[in-house]
Automatic annotation (TrEMBL):
Pfam family, one: Alpha-amylase
Organism field: Phoxinus phoxinus (Eurasian minnow)
InterPro entries xrefs: GH, GH13_cat_dom, Glyco_hydro_b, O16G_dom_2
Annotated ranges, domain Glycosyl hydrolase family 13 catalytic: 120-504
Compartment list: Apical cell membrane
Biological process according to GO: amino acid transport; carbohydrate metabolic process
Residue ranges, compositional bias (Polar residues): 505-514
Keyword Glycoprotein appears in the UniProt entry: yes
Protein name, per record: Amino acid transporter heavy chain SLC3A1
Membrane topology: Single-pass type II membrane protein
Biased composition (Basic and acidic residues): 491-503
SMART domains linked: Aamy (SM00642)
Length: 679
């Protein structure tokens, strides 16, 4: 047994490599005993002659506590120890303070849906992999490199659920199955996996308002089987007298008499699309389960269809006519009534807010945020659209689609462009994220409604405004509407002027058979556009000045340039021809000026904009030009031209023109550290 024996107060005998049994005992002592010994040791180390004795002993591991205390109180040990102690405390505090400062000063990181354009794929028309003339999921998978080429990372795919295709997939027979026309669930899983492997996000179409009349719920509802009896909206009526004057979006009464149930059911779209009854909690549960089903599969978000139609007033009163003098029996279109009882009813936002909460539960892993966008045409009641952003206490969609740029061709001009952009920016709730749509499967292609010569300027507008742009397939190459030989769209069959086939024709990949869309020798579901041999992806990719090459250049710039992704947007000019705006960021000398011509050839004089330097460098022009720089007092643009100019200045425009400028989330740039901070 090792030991250290204290023989008397003058001599200390240390046995080499040993421990004193007395000290071992100490370990087991009560704290009172040990503290009394500590006291002795302390007082003992400070008393006269003993000190000399103990100072002759060199400290080493295993020394008795008294000796240790004696040495540890010596300045040469104590001072460095205390210094180190305070250093550790100071470093810890500094680290905490730095962390808090960084967190407090860092602007919020942007989510994936803010950093990329959204690309809409209409699956029937994108790529046919099995030569049946209709596009499918495998076809989309074959073309993933197209999105990579365009630098687009979010793909919204219009419905591919099992469907009788009366409204081409917007009439769902089974929300948990893929329609065989588009492939199998395995094809879907493969597509999703391949997309995720490539860093692409998949946004599904989700259709809450209605199902197909072939859906099992409707079949059971019409024969009164519980619990499905009230899954849809039924009212007493006779075959020739509907319950009220409500009209469908597709025209005529919203009510259809059902022989089996001998009642009328409500349909705000086709009669083959009966409206679900959201006053029935079971319906909400069922539809929520479907959201879970797809989120569990790993989809990255939903585009929610026709949400304003989800609830109707239960009293079923007639809606007021827009023209009170019109013969009520002639009222048969959506625009002849005020939809006080069928659109945006109370309770709607609560349902959407709850769905957002469900989606948030799947959004916790980094990079796995599940995105939600809603479709709502408010027809100029923009406050109604803005409400879908949610409120300060309840989050709702990430954004409602902004369809206002679709009105640009109605009065194509610089002033109109400015008006529409500013309408959204001025009405959008503070801190929310803007978005821009210039086309979709329901609206004429911008190349037709505005004119082919404006497509590039539209794309430049879309990709240089702050926020998320949505590009409908084919807009990147300037596809236009096609007068199809056989009408397929039920809306168009009823009234050809409303037909949506012209904007749904197959994607133009190359100048081969069926524009490379399909190998079917006998044709495709809709005609191929006659211009496909000159307007196609392959040809345009080979040309650095083509519409697609410019789209790509802008999309890459949007991602890489913080002025575009985080900077201020400010109006600087608009007239009948030109809309000009700048993008700038505090702390950064570089700014971008965008000059878009939506009218005729003109020259714009911006000499009154004192914050701009005189010389502006051409970054991109949608039409070939030889000039590399412009003076701000003479910026010539031709009809349909888009010009992206770069400049350097120490002066910011926004502090002097607050009413012309917007930013979603203010951030400043610190060049010394190459970082952004909240300011
Ligand atoms: C949405 C879709 C449209 C469809 C309608 C009914 O508006 O975009 O294509 O016909 O809803 O589902």
């Amino acid at each position: 047994m090792s030991s250290i024996k204290i023989t008397n107060i003058d001599t200390v005998e240390l046995q080499e490599g040993a421990q004193n049994a007395a000290f071992q005992e100490d370990d087991d002592d009560t704290s009172e005993a040990s503290s009394s010994r500590e006291h002795q040791a302390t007082s003992f180390s400070f008393t006269g002659p003993e000190e000399t004795v103990y100072t002759q002993i060199k400290p080493y591991a295993g020394m008795p506590k008294e000796v240790l205390l004696l040495y540890s109180s010596k300045a040469c040990y104590r001072v460095p120890r205390e210094l180190l102690f305070w250093l550790v405390i100071a470093c810890t505090l500094a680290l905490i303070a730095t962390t808090i400062t960084i967190v407090a000063l860092s602007p919020r990181c942007m989510s994936w849906w803010q950093l990329t354009p959204v690309y809409q794929v209409y699956p029937r028309s994108f790529k046919d992999s099995n030569a049946d003339g209709v596009g499918d999921l495998k076809g989309i998978r074959e073309k993933l490199s197209h999105f990579e080429y365009l630098n687009i990372k979010a793909i919204w795919i219009s419905p591919f659920y099992k469907s009788p295709m009366r409204d081409f997939g917007y009439d769902v027979e089974d929300f948990r199955q893929v329609d065989p026309l588009f492939g199998t669930m395995e094809d879907f899983d493969d597509l999703l996996t391949s997309m995720h492997d490539k860093g692409l996000k998949l946004i599904m179409d989700y259709i809450p308002n209605h199902t197909s009349d072939k859906h099992i719920w409707f079949q059971l509802s019409r024969n009164g089987t519980e619990p499905y009896k009230d899954y849809y909206i039924w009212a007493n009526c006779t075959a020739d007298k509907p319950p009220n004057n409500w009209v469908s979006v597709f025209g005529n009464s919203t009510w259809e008499y059902d022989e089996i149930r001998q009642q009328c059911y409500l349909h705000q779209f086709l009669k083959e699309q009966p409206d679900l009854n959201y006053r029935n909690p079971r319906v909400i549960e069922e539809m929520t389960d479907i959201i879970h089903f797809w989120l569990k599969k790993g989809v990255d978000g939903f585009r929610m269809d026709a949400v304003k139609h989800m609830l109707e007033a239960t009293h079923l009163r007639n809606e007021p006519q827009v023209d009170p003098n019109q013969d009520p029996s002639t009222v048969d279109t959506e625009f002849e009534l005020y939809h006080d009882y069928t659109y945006t009813q109370q309770g709607l936002h609560e349902i959407l807010t709850d769905w957002r909460i469900e989606m948030d539960a799947y959004s916790r892993e980094p990079g796995r945020y599940r995105f939600m966008v809603v479709e709502c045409y408010d027809y100029e009641e923009i406050e109604k659209t803005m409400r879908y952003y949610g409120t300060s206490y309840a989050k709702e969609s990430d954004f409602p689609f902004n369809f206002y740029l679709l009105y640009l061709p109605d009065d194509l001009s610089g002033n109109q462009a400015k008006g529409l952009v500013n309408l959204w920016m001025s009405k959008m709730p503070k801190g929310k994220w803007p978005n821009w749509v210039v086309g979709n499967h329901d609206k004429p292609r911008i190349g037709s409604s505005a004119g082919k010569e404006y497509v590039r300027a539209m794309n430049m507008l879309l990709l240089t405004l702050p926020g998320t742009p949505t590009t409908y397939y084919g807009e990147e190459i300037g596809m236009v509407n096609v007068n199809v030989s056989v009408i397929q769209d039920p809306f168009g069959k009823d009234d050809p002027s409303n037909g949506r086939d012209p904007q749904r024709t197959p994607m133009q990949w190359n100048d081969q058979l069926n524009s490379g869309f399909s190998d079917n020798e006998t044709g495709t579901w809709l005609d191929i556009a006659p211009d496909y041999s000159t307007v196609n992806v392959e040809l345009q990719q080979a040309d650095p000045d083509s519409t697609i090459s410019q789209y790509r250049a802008l999309s890459l710039l949007k991602e890489s340039d913080i002025v575009l992704s985080r900077g201020w947007f400010c109006n600087v000019w608009s007239d009948v021809n030109v809309f000009a705006y700048l993008r700038e960021l505090d702390g950064l000398k570089k700014g971008l000026l965008v000059v878009l011509n939506f009218g005729m050839d003109t020259t714009t004089d911006l000499s009154s904009v004192s914050e701009l330097p005189d010389s502006l460098t051409v970054h991109l022009s949608t039409v070939p030009i030889s000039q590399k720089t412009f003076s701000k007092s003479r910026i010539p643009t031709s009809r349909g031209q888009g010009l992206l100019l770069e400049y350097s200045t120490n002066q910011r425009f926004h502090p002097n023109h607050a009413s012309e400028c917007y930013v979603s989330e203010k951030a400043c740039y610190l060049p010394a550290l190459d970082i952004l901070y909240k300011c």
